[in-house]
């Protein structure tokens, strides 16, 4: 029985049936694929002599392995070249739309689908990538899936899933200057824990989210997965519709009005029942930095690395591991931590508004000596828009490198990697050991404006000092 939440309504509308295992067979409206998790899935289809059931519901791009300095083909990295060729061939054979480099629409999969208007309220979306939860910003239910599930969606356009509980996360009030969407989600994960969302979908609600633009909402939903939630979403509203109107794949003419009426009906009812409700005050959220090896190990920029005694008992073991790995000691202020590399980009923070905020900090200033700082737009469209606004010139004048679109150092399946024990200020989404390409490299997560601040100062610093 539906509890009246958007999650319940969308789930019920897409339920094909209940499988003997008790799992729901859920229809997937949009399937996004890239070069990393799809080659094996296509190979599995061939082995079983199966075709892609609805090729028009699958959209492909290349993002994880693309170099961001020189994108000339063939790629210098032969394995990367092999992967892109495999995707090109599979898309051709199966009549799948592929936004390749130079198409004008290539980019990180979670950046291009929204900007093309492919992502719409009420949809079910799947992609072989953890951060598919980003698309929930539109009031869609979006799942990151594994390679065998990519195969299942290609073959049947459905997934076998257990229904989730729904936790409403309310944030109310106005964010203080220097506090961004990234700080909001890092604060939520810090409070509820990296496993707090296991078994849940997160509904982000309250006046703070109502005031956020679509790109800010995408940042928050993107990292719902880092808090253990399977997906995160925001109910659609006028901000959603204004963003979508006139985009390539958005409904047109009289279909537009019908679509908006339909989307409105999907929002959670005023009397919807939730399995849990958590409330935050926006004014309590500071510019936030991670100090450890999980996205939940975050603190305000003006705070100190917590001592074991300040932590819950179940968090102490991982904290001890983090102190050793990060070379930070309990009670040490995070501000003043020296930085080697500054990375602005990723599916969390590589959109135009992210670059604008970072450029405000970079303008008229210089990257500190010895710091490597670079900016990677999330898509070819973002790059074009940023260059039309002159953001590339601002960054380059300040000493940042301006790159081609791709996932870049976020997971470093390309030439952008940390070297040895380098420590990076990163606008990406994960600070796990080895995440940014070096088995001993260290990552501090923060907002793009905070990364730009660290680049200028050469150390972790408070963005509010430069605003």
UniProtKB/TrEMBL annotation:
Ligand binding ([4Fe-4S] cluster): 347, 407, 410
Pfam families: Aconitase
Domain Aconitase/3-isopropylmalate dehydratase large subunit alpha/beta/alpha per the UniProt entry, residue ranges: 8-458
Molecular function per GO: 3-isopropylmalate dehydratase activity; 4 iron, 4 sulfur cluster binding; metal ion binding
Any one GO BP annotation for this protein: L-leucine biosynthetic process
EC assignment: 4.2.1.33
Keywords: 4Fe-4S, Amino-acid biosynthesis, Branched-chain amino acid biosynthesis, Iron, Iron-sulfur, Leucine biosynthesis, Lyase, Metal-binding
Subunit structure: Heterodimer of LeuC and LeuD.
HAMAP family in the record: LeuC_type1 (MF_01026)
NCBIfam families: leuC, PRK05478.1, PRK12466.1
Known role: Catalyzes the isomerization between 2-isopropylmalate and 3-isopropylmalate, via the formation of 2-isopropylmaleate.
Descriptive protein name: 3-isopropylmalate dehydratase large subunit
């Amino acid at each position: 029985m539906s509890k009246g939440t958007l999650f319940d309504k969308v789930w019920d509308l897409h339920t094909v049936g209940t499988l003997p295992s008790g799992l729901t067979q859920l229809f997937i409206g949009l399937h996004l694929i890239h070069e990393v998790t799809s080659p094996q899935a296509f190979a599995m289809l061939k082995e079983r002599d199966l075709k892609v059931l609805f090729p028009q519901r699958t959209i492909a791009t290349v993002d994880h392995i693309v170099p961001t300095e020189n994108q000339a083909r063939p790629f210098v990295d032969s394995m990367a070249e092999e992967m892109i060729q495999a995707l090109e061939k599979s898309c051709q054979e199966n009549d799948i739309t592929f936004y390749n480099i130079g198409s004008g629409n290539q980019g990180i999969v979670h950046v291009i689908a929204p900007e093309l208007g492919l992502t719409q309220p009420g949809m079910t979306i799947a992609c072989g990538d953890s951060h598919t939860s980003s698309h929930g910003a539109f009031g869609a239910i979006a799942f990151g899936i594994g390679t065998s599930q990519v195969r299942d969606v290609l073959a049947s356009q459905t997934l076998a899933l257990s229904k989730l509980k729904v936790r409403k996360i309310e944030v109310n009030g106005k964010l203080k200057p220097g506090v961004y969407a990234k700080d909001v989600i890092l604060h939520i994960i810090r409070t509820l824990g990296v496993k707090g969302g296991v078994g849940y979908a997160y509904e982000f609600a309250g006046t703070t989210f109502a005031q956020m633009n679509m790109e800010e909402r995408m940042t928050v939903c993107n990292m719902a997965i880092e808090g253990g939630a399977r997906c995160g979403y925001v109910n659609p509203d006028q901000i959603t519709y204004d963003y979508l109107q006139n985009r390539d794949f958005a409904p047109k003419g009289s279909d537009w009005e019908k679509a908006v009426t339909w989307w409105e009906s999907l929002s959670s009812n005023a009397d919807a029942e939730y399995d849990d409700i958590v409330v935050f005050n926006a004014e309590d959220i500071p510019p936030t930095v991670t100090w450890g090896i999980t996205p939940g190990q975050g603190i305000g920029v003006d705070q100190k690395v917590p001592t074991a005694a300040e932590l819950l008992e179940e968090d102490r073991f991982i904290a001890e591991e983090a102190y050793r790995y990060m070379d930070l000691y309990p009670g040490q202020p995070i501000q003043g931590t020296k930085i080697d590399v500054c990375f602005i980009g990723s599916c969390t923070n590589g959109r135009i508004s992210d670059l604008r905020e970072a450029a405000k900090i970079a303008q008229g200033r210089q990257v500190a000596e010895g710091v490597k700082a670079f900016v990677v737009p999330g898509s070819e469209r973002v790059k074009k828009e940023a260059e039309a606004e002159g953001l590339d010139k601002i960054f380059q004048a300040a000493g940042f490198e301006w790159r081609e679109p791709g996932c870049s150092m976020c997971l470093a399946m390309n030439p952008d990697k940390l070297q040895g024990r380098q420590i990076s200020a990163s606008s990406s989404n994960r600070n796990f050991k080895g995440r940014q390409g070096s088995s001993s490299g260290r990552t501090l997560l923060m907002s793009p404006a905070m990364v730009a601040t660290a680049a200028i100062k050469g150390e972790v610093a408070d963005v509010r000092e430069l605003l």
